[in-house]
Amino acid sequence: MDYVIVGNGIAAIGAVEGIRRLDRDNPITIISAEPYLAYGRPLIANFLRGKLSQGMMLLREESFYSRNGVNLLLGRKAVELNFKGQRVILDDHQDVPYDKLLLAMGGRPFVPPIKGLGKNYYTFTTLKDAFDLQQLCDSAETAVVVGGGLIGLKAAESLYDRGVNIHIVELADRILSTSFDEIAGRIIYSRLKQVGMKIHLKITVEEVLGGPDTVLGTRLTNGEMIKCHAVVVAIGVVPETELVANTEIQTNRGIVVDEYMETSVPGVYSAGDVAETIDMLIKEKRVTPIWPNAYRQGQMAGQNMAGARKSYEGSLPMNSIAFYGIPTVSIGITNPPAEGEYETFLTVDEPRSVYRKCVMRAGFLVGAVLVGKIGRAGILTGMIKNRIPVSDFKDRLIEEEFSLTDLPREFREQLLAGE
Asked: Which of 90, 305, 369, 403 could be cross-linked to 357 through a Cys-Cys bond (beta carbons 3.0 to 4.6 Å apart)?
């Protein structure tokens, strides 16, 4: 039995550990276009800021691969899949045979068509991006960050801490519009403005001024000119599905998998930011590019590749990130429709940058937003996953000092048992 994994992120690590739960002997090959050992992508912001070394970003120590019998092919890109012959073709024409294959290529930055945008921009999703931006910090005085979501704001914060003046340009009417709600976005907006960043909302970059390899400034859609030395495109990521284009693999936005993480081709699985899995709350398949989900998907896929028949429970959107001393957490459904089956209850103290909101549907907790005071976020997550009815104590969930002791005994025991 030959196991092959394309990709070397957190989903791949989960898959190796999942396989080795059941199969200690058969070889595993990991193919990665990046030349680095598996590292934490969410950590590249702190790496760029100088708070972490490259070694501190590793997901597992280097010996992890040899201990688990993994043949690691770094800096090698998979360019073709031969399902009939069960082979992965690499960019140097080498072919790697497999019996079970996992596609865990992750995502790639989405770059919109912008006039004047050639090779004169940066992205912020890989370690190479961080190395490139380190050099930028030594020479650039001002940078324009296109995108006011999680990736854009962390890129802006990292560059600003390195002495680069920052303009954030966001097409939506607020920052963090996808992961957080209006109040949370407003609190973080105020904090970023307070430290000195300039934020432009309901607008985007129409043209990058300069040459194919240089930037002199940007022109916004309202005609405003921003003189800058660099443009960082950080709108978001899209699933890296190029490898399976025009093949028998079913795709939608990502690679569609069943509850066992298997694709439409038998023996071929997918996990992580490239996979389209069931959302446990809305019961529809979607791409949920979140670290814990990617690991769990990889773990389930690995076990099933090794002969198990375990169902993936579904993905739950979650984010936990801090902006200049303000911690934030979002879980599940954070922007429910104004009318319909959802009930929202919240408490907010904007002068203290404190905000807690819970979203309930049919008596169950389905979402939460925490800003400033994020304690017990794990309990709320457990309540969502375990479908614990909350109607009788819903008001207590938004209290800053909320804890397990506020729950009825039977629910405390259920959460502690991890049922």
From this structure: 369
Main-chain phi, psi angles of 217, to 5 degrees? 170, -175
Q: What's the chain's Rg over C-alpha atoms?
A: 22
Instruction: Give the single-character DSSP code of 281.
Output: T
State the Cα–Cα distance between residues 244 and 103, nearest whole angstrom.
9
Q: One-letter amino acid identity for 180?
A: F
**DSSP codes joined into one string, 64-84:** HHHHTTEEEEET--EEEEETT
Tokens, residue 240:
């890296």
DSSP 263: -
- Is 44 within 8 Å of 155 (Cβ atoms)? no
Pairwise CA distance, residues 179 & 175, whole Å: 10
Place of tokens 């930011």: 273
Residues 6 or more apart whose CB falls under 8 angstroms from that of 108 comprise 125, 237, 238, 240
Residue 52 tokens read as: 């972490």
Beta strands in 237-363 (DSSP E): 237-239, 255-256, 268-270, 275-278, 285-286, 318-323, 326-332, 342-349, 354-361
pLDDT tens, residue by residue, 123-145: 999 999 999 999 888 888 999 99
Residue 362 pLDDT > 70: yes
Residues composing the chain: 419
The answer to whether 308 and 373 are in contact (CB under 8 A) is no
- Tokens matching residue 207: 């043209």
**Whole-angstrom distance, CA of residue 180 vs CA of residue 211:** 37
* Rounded Cα distance, 263 and 247, in Å: 12
Distance, CA of 122 to CA of 114 (rounded, Å)? 14
Placement of tokens 């963090």 in the chain: 176
Cα 389 from Cα 241, distance rounded (Å): 39
Nearest to 230 by CA among 202, 253, 210: 210
- Asked if residue 171 lies in contact with residue 202, where contact means CB atoms within 8 angstroms, the answer is yes
- Tens digits of per-residue pLDDT, 211-237? 888 899 999 999 999 999 999 999 989
User: In the chain, what percentage of residues exceed pLDDT 70?
Assistant: 99
- Closest Cα to residue 6, out of 69, 66, 55, 79? 79
Q: Are 277 and 285 in contact (CB under 8 A)?
A: yes
